[in-house]
Structure formats: structure tokens, C-alpha cells
Write a structure and sequence with these properties.
There is one protein chain. Helix content is about 60%, strand content about 0%. It has one domain. It has 13 helices and no strands. Helix 3 packs antiparallel against helix 7, helix 5 runs parallel beside helix 9 and helix 7 crosses helix 11. The chain is globular. By secondary structure, it is mainly α.
Length: about 300
């Protein structure tokens, strides 16, 4: 038995992390998104260019931030930011990376719409289908939607399923076709490396307040998870709490790395909401099956 186990450990052709994740029944993640993430992270740029790009990005952003504090005026250009971002994504970031980024915009909108509709708020509608749909301040609107949905709740207690007068609304979770562009690219950087470089442009072409608001929005994942947990009665959502505490505000952080983690958390949320919606449909009620929900809440 010992020799057998040793041979399996040394077997470089055995299953890897991605095989384990695909086979893990407790890992709730869209299989296409998982495939995109696998291809994106296996790119050579992720191993070779991402480490120095992270350093360059942190240094450049800190330098830009200091200069903006010293200058008596602030320069910003949302139009240039849009055009530069679309051009960069179209020519220098892999198709997988581009699709993952667009997919995150759609999924976060769906999650926020779930919270808004089930609390009587105004649901956001930002669901880009192509890179060109990122025009008209889409990145800034994306961040504002999060603040507006949470602020719109107004501190009111969120109803758990057993306290609701009507059913839970899962109708906003569809993900339409996404086209990240098939034009010939100069480079195919992985998404995180691309975000390192795009973060420099974002810091340069937005005001200090806009940049801080965008970075601080990453700290609100805990609030989103808590809202979804309350509305569904499923405390598994709370177990995905990111590191940190909401009131301890941090702007000087590894933004590209945290953006990837932020996108992954929304993949978790969205996949679990879809599973709960499917279970509710099978039971004939949007509140779900009590016995099945109890079992599901123990799976994360």
C-alpha cells in the first residue's frame, strides 16, 4: 500500500487542482467559467509577467496618487479611459480574460439585482455582451451600482424566506451570450497581468475620489454575502467572507489580485443562487424545499 501511494504521489500525470475542482460536488462554480479561468491562469504571462507587473503597478499607482495630492488640480478623462480600456482588452488580453471580465460585470449585476428586487429597490441593468459595451463609463457605473443598491436598503432589516409575504425572486440570474472579440491580438496576457497595467490607467484617468471609491467597493463583498444569506436563509454564503473588515478602509492594496478574488466570490454567489432557484422550481415554490434547503445549507 505504501509503494502504491508513493507511486501515485510521484505520478506527474495524475489529476491536478483543476481536475479536483471539476470533480468536487461541493465546489459550486460555473463549469465554463472554471475552464476559462484555468486556461487564463495557465498562460505563460501569469507565471512570468504577472509578478513584475504587480510591482510596477503598485509603484506606479502610489506615485500617481502622491502626485495628485501635491498638484492643485486633478486631471481625469472618462472618455479616454473607456477607449484605452477597450483597445487594451481587444489587443493585449486573452479572449478568456476578456470574457471573464465581461462575465463578472454581468454576474455582479445579477447578484445586485437579486438583492434589489427582493428588498424593493431599483435593480441595476449593466450587462455588457461585448468589449465595446464597456463604453459610457461602464467601469465607474459598475462600482456605483454596488453602492446604490446597498445604500438604497436604508438600514432596513432584510426578510428571511419564512418572513416574506411573497416568493423569492430569482428571475434576474440569466447570463446571455458574451463576445470578447476574435480579432487578432498583439499579445494574450492573462487577466490579472492585464489588470495590473489597466489599474495604472484607471488611477491616472479618474479623480482621487473616484479611484478610492472603486477600490473601497472591494471591501463590500462581505455586505453582499450577508444580504444574500439573509434573503435566502442560507448561511453558507457567510462562510465565503473575504479577509478584512468593512469599516477598516484600505486604499493601498493589491487591487488586481483582489479584483480576481472579488470576481471569484461573485461566481460562487451566482452559482449557488442558480442552484437554489433550480431547487425552488422543482419544488414548485420560489421559497424552496425546506428539507432540501436544510441539506443544501450544509454544503459549501
Amino acid at each position: 500500500m505504501g509503494d502504491f501511494l508513493a507511486s501515485r504521489i510521484l505520478d506527474s500525470q495524475g489529476p491536478g487542482i483543476w481536475d479536483a475542482l471539476r470533480g468536487d460536488p461541493t465546489f459550486q462554480f460555473d463549469q465554463r467559467a472554471l475552464g476559462l479561468l484555468e486556461h487564463d491562469q495557465k498562460r505563460r504571462s501569469h507565471r512570468l509577467l504577472r509578478p513584475p507587473a504587480r510591482v510596477v503597478s503598485r509603484v506606479a499607482v502610489n506615485l500617481i496618487t502622491v502626485v495628485k495630492r501635491v498638484l492643485p488640480f486633478e486631471f481625469s478623462s472618462h472618455d479616454l479611459l473607456d477607449r484605452l480600456g477597450i483597445w487594451f482588452l481587444s489587443h493585449f488580453v486573452s479572449e478568456e480574460g476578456g470574457e471573464l471580465l465581461l462575465r463578472h460585470f454581468v454576474l455582479e449585476t445579477n447578484v445586485l439585482a437579486f438583492i434589489a428586487r427582493n428588498t424593493g429597490g431599483q435593480a441595476p441593468t449593466l450587462r455588457p455582451e461585448s468589449l465595446h459595451d464597456l463604453e459610457d463609463n461602464a467601469v465607474i457605473v459598475h462600482d456605483l451600482n454596488l453602492y446604490e443598491v446597498l445604500a438604497g436598503i436604508g438600514g432596513r432589516p432584510l426578510p428571511r424566506p419564512e418572513e416574506r409575504d411573497g416568493p423569492i425572486d430569482y428571475s434576474m440570474l440569466a447570463v446571455g451570450p458574451i463576445e470578447a472579440g476574435n480579432r487578432r491580438r498583439v499579445l494574450r496576457l492573462d487577466l490579472e497581468t492585464g489588470l495590473c497595467l489597466m489599474n495604472i490607467a484607471f488611477c491616472l484617468l479618474t479623480t482621487s475620489d473616484e479611484y478610492r471609491r472603486a477600490v473601497h467597493s472591494l471591501q463590500l463583498d462581505e455586505s453582499v454575502l450577508a444580504c444574500v444569506a439573509e434573503l435566502t436563509g442560507d448561511d453558507v454564503f457567510r462562510s465565503w467572507k473575504p479577509a478584512g473588515y468593512n469599516p477598516i478602509v484600505r486604499t493601498n492594496r493589491d487591487v488586481p489580485r483582489d479584483l480576481i478574488a472579488h470576481a471569484v466570490i461573485h461566481e460562487y454567489i451566482h452559482a449557488r443562487l442558480l442552484e437554489k432557484a433550480a431547487r425552488a422550481r422543482r419544488c414548485g415554490t420560489s421559497k424552496g424545499c425546506p428539507t432540501l434547503e436544510k441539506t443544501l445549507s450544509g454544503v459549501g
